[in-house]
Each structure stands twice: as structure tokens, then as C-alpha cells.
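Case study 2.
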Amino acid sequence: MSPGHPLAKVLIVDADPAKLGALRSALAAAAYKVTSATSASFALTTLERDRPDLIVSGARTEDMDGVEFCSIIRSDPATHDIPFLLLSGPTRPTPWAVAQAGVDMLLAGDFVVSAVLDRISKLLRHVVPGESGSAVPEPGPLPAARPASAASASGLPGMPRAEVGGRTFQGSFGALDLTEVTQAIGLGGKTGRLALALSVGDGSVLFESGRVIHAEFAGLTGESAFAALVAAAQHDPEGTFRFKPATGADAGPRTIQKNLDQLLISVASEIDEGRAPPPPPRTT
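Prediction:
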């Protein structure tokens, strides 16, 4: 299938008519079928008769914010699996809000049409438009680096939407970055293992009472492994994470002594200065 995914249906919802016009024109030129609305409530009334393959929402619609709109989409079994791209603008929502809403991919910062088109293409990479307009998985094997448990969490193979509650916290790095995921687990004071599936390989981070105590990745352990994971996840929006709680007795080895704030500051400094260990070559 060509990069433009001809005939794929995209619904755009935003309170700004200028953004809607710019995206409609760009998507139409890229051979997408486009519908739009300035009101989330109006958009919801159209979904039953004209189900899109993808929803793009701005941070604000005329009657609610984009995070709330996504939550409503996820609460309805008829629309639960529609991929959702949130354009958050300069103000990025909290990681917990993004995870609870079930956003598949988040694009923060200034509105740039080419960047939005790139994210749309990534979200539609593993789906093709079905005859009824619903997203249907493409035939063929899933990427080997994606665990089956992660792929089953979403209509997008290899890109599960974030889920909070119960015994798991999981999602993709297109919606949250690893530092945000780490902070969310830390604020919750959780103990357990965060498993990461990246295109360059798998890794893990162990938490005890919200504190990172150990990390493993590409033959590295400890703080260097955590820094390499953060750096690799930054460039892998289709990478996935899954957190599984554990009892204190199952916490595991301790190779990281810094508290969470110290660790994140140290890792950010290493990445900014180019001192973070390079990720391994991508798997084929």
C-alpha cells in the first residue's frame, strides 16, 4: 500500500477552523478521505454511520478537551479500537491523563502540518481501510520485537494504547516518553517490573515503592542501561511498555542508588551531552 493509504478515512476534530482547513487540504492531497468537526459532541453523533480509520483531535474542541474526547471514544465498545492522535499544542497533558484516556499517539508543540501527516502515516502503518470503514489489520506477521500480549491490547498491532488500573500500566512511546512513564509509576509509589519492547531490543526497569532500583538493556545494567533505554525510546514511537506490579519481596536486584529525581536529572544530562550509551543496531 502506498504511504498515503488511499481511501483511509480520517476524522479531524478541533475548535480552530484554520487548523481544520489546513489538515483537510493536506490529507485530501495525500489521498485520504476526510471528515471534520469543531465540536466533539457532533463528531460522536457521526461515528455510528461513518466510522473512521483514525481520529485526530486538537487539545480543545468547542465543547470539551481532546483528552476527554478520547476517553469517551474508548468507553464505547463500538469505537474503542479506533486509533486516536492527540495534538496537544504547547501544553502537554499529564502522563496519567494521557494513559487513562487511551491516547495512541501524542504530538506536542506548535502545529505543523507535515508533522501531523507523519504521525498519521505511522498510526495507519499497520491497518488498512476495511469495506465498512473500520480498521482491519494488514495480513502478515507482526514485528518480532513486539510481544503478543502487547499487540493484543489494541487494534494496532505492536502499538497498544495505554491502560491504567487493575494490575497493568501499558502503552506506546508515541503517547508517552519513558521519563513520563517512570514519573507516573514513581508518583504512584509502585513496586514491580516495567518491560520495554523496542525495535532495537527488549529492556526492563525494576521499581520498589516508586523508586527505580535496577535496569537492564543491551548487555548493560544499572544507570547506564536506564540512560540507554531513555535514549532509544525517544526515537521509537512504536516501542511499547508494560508495567506489572509485584510484592516487595519480588523487587529484584539493586544497581541504582539515586532517588528518582536525581536519576532523571542525571540521565537527561548524559543524553544532552551525548554521554548516554548508544543503542544496539536495529533488529531486522
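The CA atoms of residues 72 and 255 lie 42 Å apart.
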